[in-house]
User: What shape does this take?
Amino acid sequence: MKRKSLTPLGETEMEVLHHVWDLGRATVAEVQARILSERKVAYTTVMTVMKKLADKGYLQFEKDGTTYVYSAARSAEDVQRSLVDDLVSKVFRGSTLALVQALVGHEDFSDEERREIKNLIDEMEDEDDTPG
Assistant: This one.
């Protein structure tokens, strides 16, 4: 029996998505060149991953002569929110608090990161206090 992944995207798919988000518009060759700076990867592997991402609705493409040019069909923020929602649902049984407790309990935050987290919480509280 095949195990179901916790996320709908694999590691290489996420890597490719990040490169397309960074570039805005990208060909398979451009994404491959960026990945090659970190590790070896075949052109056909990148091409297959980009086609799968398009089939899943994460990328869109247009033809420019004989070349396919890909761009994001979903924003990074939208994908991140969706993946975190799935993680909270599947791993933490719907408890956002349990996720935050797991993150805070296992992270060694710098003073700056702690200040940023506190500022985020303060902003949330300010929004809650604002009459709407």
